[in-house]
């Protein structure tokens, strides 16, 4: 629509900025590798193009290429970027500060004035005639917070203020201002200008139309030669704006230049816009502006005032962008880790429950050969919360078999295993929530003196708290007796408990059955909520424990006792074939994942491989055994079932209720007098009646040739 | 929007600045979470940064744009579609925001359909995280496309020519890119 009437102030649509992610990446890289704390201003290039869509304005864009190269060979001054038809290059300057305070403390007024002055100089020196893009010079201030990967920034597009402001006499689509013939010729000429690599990125030019309706596009410096014979002469510029009633921002400094240089009072201008890569004269605008030059403009020294700080959604505040998700290596590692598991779910295992794996809390008692491997396997499955308990230090022989340690951990007497393990896990996957607890596990058969009593009780309580605050407990220590107390505490609270134990060339991996009592303080992780109803109907745990699956001690007829003293050296050091620990650890973790995906969780019944009842192969992860016993000499593995024993020293109802009644005193008694447990559970009786047997118990582990026990 | 050849020697195809959403008014409040720590301090109080000659617009159109690259994967030996999306001011969009705009994901099916598994990985040339359509299904469905015809065994030259087009006809659907019929007809 034509806008008639003198006296209305010509209003320009401000430039809008758009910063490509790559710009911030390169700036970060330059800061870290080249500039350091040097905060001198950096020359940069911006890019824009004429509007190419009737409803959307174009932006002044910053890309990675806007900044100097971050490779070491090239100089840090960019060659002035040659643009192309899609990217008109515009010079700018970046002030990047080192702190937020200095960002806010920048003298914005002063900086804007300085850039305005450069434009003013270029106008008067004639630089504009050579390289008109300098009329659109811009300013950027920023603060790059490289710890949080957030970037605060603010653009200014300095525009020299005409005082009084220019007024608009007329503004209409170009197709309505030219005759049909003229329009066609203008379009052709402009398209040629845009297609030539020499002129495609020259954003300010002249369009002259002769009386023969023939149009020509000329450089600004040819202005004098266009003065004759009643031609129509338009001052044209690439207009990023799409609005029908307003020209874009570049016109401001263009008008300032025209009136300062050539002293014109009336200016006919062409806002050049395109559609689909070709000149569009119905989108483009032709207007007539009246300029009144104030006195100050004749004096070169007096720089006019300027405006141009970009508004942020209408407010005079800087912008901020956070790129942690695409720049922070930890986040990238997390999403890469997730990718693997999600791929697995997508391609092979749609019922994989990744949420439960991400949220479950695992407690590993022992950070040795088994502990290190279990921790790694857990992380591979997406488990993020791992606590390791071990009171030992890393010895020189450890790194070979204990996969979280290296030589550095052994130096100076050796770091605590629990601490070194956590460090190692964090190096592998920074997002892991790992904690190390340096603590000894109180053991029956290792009596404590009265001075030590308090600290032992403290350890017991601490162990109890740890077990209470985790969902899954792995028993990975190197003696049988050290597993007793954790087993009892887990049975008391119905926590998922997995034991792995090694012989010289055989191993045992098993999941403990639920405890003897039904009350479960915290089952929300092991089972979905709907299952609690099912369980109330399903009397899976009876007080006589007949149906429950057994624990590590259920098959023992002696209470755990001191297995470490009075042994020969080779029996004291746990010597096992190196391949066993990785195998057993891997099976332990796979067993856990199976439990987590079983609808009954800890209450799941045991299945045996090749069972006759058809097995549960409807479960996508396969069967869920109770015990896996493996033998390396035979390269063989068996799945076995063992139900709980009423006389179990660790998990039978007698023991657990005694613990519930007497708490730590009971524990202390069991620690100091192992025969106490045997008496309590009736094992003493059992032994007397079984004196015909010749039993040769290996105190370290169950004998691998034990027959399958099925009640 | 023209396809541009990239300046690298070993190149990739790129199609950039595709607008993937309609302009809609953005409520200033709802965007406040995209500007964390937006400061209260404003520009200098002394001067007026908006002079009479500056047009102040009250509505702010938020548009989303998408860049697409086709890169050859040596590991999988198939082309792979990489994409990334961003707002008009350059802020990158996250996957859940992109999925709202892409047709395959806005359909009733779960976004992880058989062919459309979108993952975030490092762009092999630009070394920055982009999203890509995971290629492990590609050779399967390409086999289907080529063996499914009833014209017998196609000649190798024809197969190679048509490969990228056929591949793209399947993959492009996920992100709402379609091959103009003219391009398909011109093959004859």
TrEMBL record, chain A:
The active site is at residue 573. Residues 345-598 form the THIF-type NAD/FAD binding fold domain. InterPro entries: Atg7 (IPR006285), Atg7_N (IPR032197), Atg7_N_1 (IPR042522), Atg7_N_2 (IPR042523), ThiF/MoeB/HesA (IPR045886), ThiF_NAD_FAD-bd (IPR000594), Ubiquitin-activating_enz (IPR035985). One of its GO terms (biological process) is protein transport. GO terms for molecular function: ubiquitin-like modifier activating enzyme activity. Keywords: Autophagy, Cytoplasm, Protein transport, Transport, Ubl conjugation pathway. GO terms for cellular component: phagophore assembly site. Residues 10-327 form the Ubiquitin-like modifier-activating enzyme Atg7 N-terminal domain. Its main location: cytoplasm. It is found in: Cytoplasm; Preautophagosomal structure. Belongs to the ATG7 family. Homodimer. E1-like activating enzyme involved in the 2 ubiquitin-like systems required for autophagy. This is Ubiquitin-like modifier-activating enzyme ATG7. It comes from Theobroma cacao.
From TrEMBL, chain B:
Residues 28-47 are annotated as: Disordered. Gene3D superfamilies: 3.30.1460.50. Keywords: Autophagy, Transferase, Ubl conjugation pathway. One of its GO terms (molecular function) is ubiquitin-like protein transferase activity. InterPro entries: Atg3/Atg10. One of its GO terms (biological process) is autophagy. Residues 36-47 have a biased composition (Acidic residues). Belongs to the ATG10 family. This is Ubiquitin-like-conjugating enzyme ATG10.
